Amino acid sequence: MVLVFDEFGRRFIILREQESKSRLRGLDAHKANVAGGKAVARILRTSLGPKGMDKMLQSPDGDVTITNDGATILEQMDVDNQIAKLMVELSRSQDYEIGDGTTGVVVMAGSLLEQAEKLLERGIHPIRIAEGYEMASRIAFDHLEHISNKFEFTATNIEPLVQTCMTTLSSKIVNRCKRMLAEIAVKAVLAVADLERKDVNLDLIKVEGKVGGKLEDTELIYGIAVDKDMSHPQMPKRIEDANIAILTCPFEPPKPKTKHKVDIDTVEKFQTLREQEQKYFDEMVQKCKDVGATLVICQWGFDDEANHLLMHRNLPAVRWVGGVELELIAIATGGRIVPRFQELSPEKLGKAGLVREKSFGTTKDRMLYIEKCANSRAVTIFIRGGNKMMIEEAKRSIHDALCVARNLIRNNSIVYGGGSAEISCSIAVDAAADRYAGVEQYAIRSFADALDGIPLALAENSGLPPIDTLTAVKSQQVKEGNPHCGIDCNDVGTNDMREQNVFETLIGKQQQLLLATQVVKMILKIDDVITPSEF
Amino acid sequence: MERVMKDDTIQEKGERARMASFVGAMAIADLVKTTLGPKGMDKILQSTGRGRSVTVTNDGATILKSLHIDNPAAKVLVDISKVQDDEVGDGTTSVVVLAGELLREAEKLVNMKIHPMTIIAGYRMAAECARNALLQRTMDNKGNTDKFRSDLMNIAMTTLSSKILSQDKEYFAELAVDAVLRLKGSTNLESIQILKKPGGSLKDSFLDEGFILDKKIGLGQPKRIENANILVANTAMDTDKVKIYGARVRVDSMTKVADIEAAEKQKMREKVQKIIAHGINCFVNRQLIYNFPEELFADAGILAVEHADFEGIERLALVTGGDIASTFDNPESVKLGHCKLIEEIMIGEDRLIHFSGVAMGQACTIVLRGASEHVLDEAERSLHDALCVLSQTVNDTRVLFGGGWPEMVMAKEVDQLARKTPGKKSHAIDAFSRALQAIPTIIADNAGLDSAELISQLRAEHHKENSTAGIDVITGNVGDMQKRGICEAFKVKQAIILSATEAAEMILRVDEIITCAPRRREDRM
């Protein structure tokens, strides 16, 4: 930007390379932004709900992903539009924060933008709309709290948790065995959960997949499964009551980090060095043996000689185990990760009741199961399925279910699903709108209309007449004063979601509302878009 | 609509997306369709790489692996075929064809305005019902060794009959069954070595009880050893470097060089002495053996083999019962391998080392002979299929009849389910049964038979209780599968049904395809 003066001394500004930049201002900018956001929402709209469809995505490298998870679709879609990128961020933050409802939040934002567009056309200032939305979202937020139920569960009565996870899974391709997967997810979460602190560290749950078999073969392993095998083909494949040494140093000659050179210039030196080397390997193995280890798990590789010595001394070993897996093994077995052979000591060893190698199919795929660990707080969910895309999608679905279970442990409030919460909020917001004077009242009403967007999409995807269904449910809610009426997506015959056992977490829903409103506010505040043109 | 995605991104929605995936999947299914069944044809594949090498094959997985496919739905089918290959080894074509047929039927239903989710629900019910129908009709001869063996023979022959080996299928079935039974229930096919040697005819192939190593014996070493003690090793026999990091040789005069060299030689000599001290008369190493140690071995009258590959070493260790050693300081605790006789044999023009009379019979070698490399490659693939199926059957001993029998049994049950089910789902269940019947139809078509006539006869046969009728492609009639001895493994069939349905379901659920712009590569051409 340069400030210049013309011959009369008037100032004007020259923008550098003004021609090559495209610029949108004022209402045009608003309209363009709203359209961009809506376009993204429209793509996800058909994925919502139990009858939602999947999207097939081909990455720039030609890999195919088939999914129904909003966050994954948007991430892989490779969007270019700036506003669309905001929407991608939105779904990602829902994913990080809650883990579920990533599609819903985008559809919600799209619906809010659509309503905002109408208000903009009537000449209402975008900031006023934003403020109105903010007020409305607070009303809806409180209302959700109001209609939520507490869900009592204990470590033995996990049924409520399972039901909630099933609601999440029912929209995925894995819904064929949602009951089983939901149980697995809940058990996994409970195994690692700290019920007193109400906290769950999802890092302790490892989700591993291998193609082959069928989805029903998916299992929960109270221990760790590592995609590795024994370093020497003749080592035993099954070890009971293993004492595990977890090492991060290689069974290789030492490599001091400081730069050095050992010069060999006499025959004696050559020989001593040689002996040193042999002794070194011997000592490494001996140290492991001395502390009583019966299995060595190492992050690095082994030298051939070391490998043989290990086998020779009857000390099974696994090499090239990744850092994350190593940590999990350490947690599960109660061992310590040892960075040097010198620091090995009996109390640093991990304990596991059973370590076994399991082979799959006709290829030489093998996996190592470490089970019956001293501290069974790390678990593995091992997914099987007919093809690679299925496994990937199952992994994403399990992740969602795990997040839901975790959220419930943190906060055991739930709201009912099937769009019932949105409809109830919409009624509440609409009623509250009249209390506000000024332009905001319009915005608040629009917010209520936007909330209807989700049940509408649900009904549409389930093949029901959307407007008829929505209005029927809405009037039923008002008449009966029952906030649990929703859209009957599965054709069960009742639209009381309490009877259908369709639940969602309260924090998930609240977060959806807040995030969607925030992003829409942000988009509404933009009135100037400057894009450098392509070169 | 506002442009959201990058320039070259292709976005297809709704009907168009569904059509694109149907077309892609069916194209793939039609491509491999003609290879199905005993009278199926082969395909020639020419690689685009250097040499334009040619493969002639009938194996679905091999064909699909070599295709360059752009259609994302087609990739799903290629993937299921690959998984089928890895998991059970056979039925790679059938799974793709069935998935293709399911989608073909689904397309008709979609055109009738039935929602894909309804179709999926119907397919799921049908698949479950089909699997149960098969489960009830399986035969299990686990207890009876002789019968089980004949089951295995039948399965091997049925698998091989669609391959290049069909002329000598009895012979090869015998080979395969013998080889698999030696594994004693392990599915580790690594211990069955397949050696390919061009020359002779397929009939000259044989199973060797012992172990054949495709290596030469070192110069001046004995060519025949009886009662051999074998040390299997993985150690450097070239220069045996000092591995300590940063070590290097730096000398300031020629004499010192000579000294070091002598020391090195001394070191090697000591190593060889240590190895010899194990009391062995055969030494097999994975790594190179230089001339000097080789000479030392020759002097000691020890047969030394260098550069055996890693799998060879593992197998050898397995058959002879020895350890794979890398250090040699404690001869008393290293387990040596034993065999009755080591000799050099000639197959065709190549000299190989033959270990016979081995301690453990878990491994064996199948030597394939044949007119050309292509024949041998295809024979190996066929044999691999048979071995995979057999090894899986040894673990899961349930067996079914072949020749379209399982499909008809399932179709019948599924048909009945369709009649009982109210609602639109029943159309989908009907469609599933039609897709199942398409497989025997294709088998008959490929054999040049009147498929419409045969299938209707077959269906009539199956209307009776406990029918064992199937298509006999050789005579071109409906025949009794039990008498003809045409069998298939239950595990294979089950995997076909489940993964084909799963794949069809996945593709049906899609209503939008987004193809990202291909990653730009720097022009290296």
Automatic annotation (TrEMBL), chain A:
InterPro entries according to UniProt: Chap_CCT_epsi, Chaperone_TCP-1, Chaperonin_TCP-1_CS, Cpn60/GroEL/TCP-1, GroEL-like_apical_dom_sf, GROEL-like_equatorial_sf, TCP-1-like_intermed_sf, TCP-1_chaperonin
Alphabetized Gene3D superfamilies for the sequence: GroEL (3.50.7.10), GroEL-like equatorial domain (1.10.560.10), TCP-1-like chaperonin intermediate domain (3.30.260.10)
PROSITE patterns assigned to the protein according to its UniProt record, in alphabetical order: TCP1_1 (PS00750), TCP1_2 (PS00751), TCP1_3 (PS00995)
Entry keyword annotation includes Flavoprotein: no
GO cellular component entries: chaperonin-containing T-complex
Localization terms from the record: Cytoplasm, Cytoskeleton, Microtubule organizing center, Centrosome
Keyword tags: Acetylation, ATP-binding, Chaperone, Cytoplasm, Cytoskeleton, Hydrolase, Isopeptide bond, Nucleotide-binding, Phosphoprotein, Ubl conjugation
Tree of life domain: Eukaryota
Biological process annotations from GO: protein folding
Catalytic activity field: ATP + H2O = ADP + phosphate + H(+)
Single annotated GO MF: ATP-dependent protein folding chaperone
UniProt record similarity statement: Belongs to the TCP-1 chaperonin family.
Functional description taken from the UniProt entry: Molecular chaperone; assists the folding of proteins upon ATP hydrolysis. Known to play a role, in vitro, in the folding of actin and tubulin. Component of the chaperonin-containing T-complex (TRiC), a molecular chaperone complex that assists the folding of actin, tubulin and other proteins upon ATP hydrolysis. The TRiC complex mediates the folding of WRAP53/TCAB1, thereby regulating telomere maintenance. As part of the TRiC complex may play a role in the assembly of BBSome, a complex involved in ciliogenesis regulating transports vesicles to the cilia.
Subunit relationships: Component of the chaperonin-containing T-complex (TRiC), a hexadecamer composed of two identical back-to-back stacked rings enclosing a protein folding chamber. Each ring is made up of eight different subunits: TCP1/CCT1, CCT2, CCT3, CCT4, CCT5, CCT6A/CCT6, CCT7, CCT8. Interacts with PACRG. Interacts with DNAAF4. Interacts with DLEC1. Interacts with SPMAP2.
Protein's recorded name: T-complex protein 1 subunit epsilon
Organism listed in the record: Brachypodium distachyon (Purple false brome)
Gene: LOC100830440
TrEMBL record, chain B:
GO terms of biological process kind: protein folding
Cellular component, GO annotation: chaperonin-containing T-complex
Subcellular location: Cytoplasm
Pfam families: Cpn60_TCP1
Highest taxon in the source lineage: Eukaryota
InterPro entries, sorted: Chap_CCT_beta, Chaperone_TCP-1, Chaperonin_TCP-1_CS, Cpn60/GroEL/TCP-1, GroEL-like_apical_dom_sf, GROEL-like_equatorial_sf, TCP-1-like_intermed_sf, TCP-1_chaperonin
GO molecular function: ATP binding; ATP hydrolysis activity; ATP-dependent protein folding chaperone; unfolded protein binding
Keywords: ATP-binding, Chaperone, Cytoplasm, Nucleotide-binding
Entry's family note: Belongs to the TCP-1 chaperonin family.
Function: Molecular chaperone; assists the folding of proteins upon ATP hydrolysis. Known to play a role, in vitro, in the folding of actin and tubulin.
Protein name per Swiss-Prot or TrEMBL: T-complex protein 1 subunit beta
Gene name of this polypeptide: LOC100821102
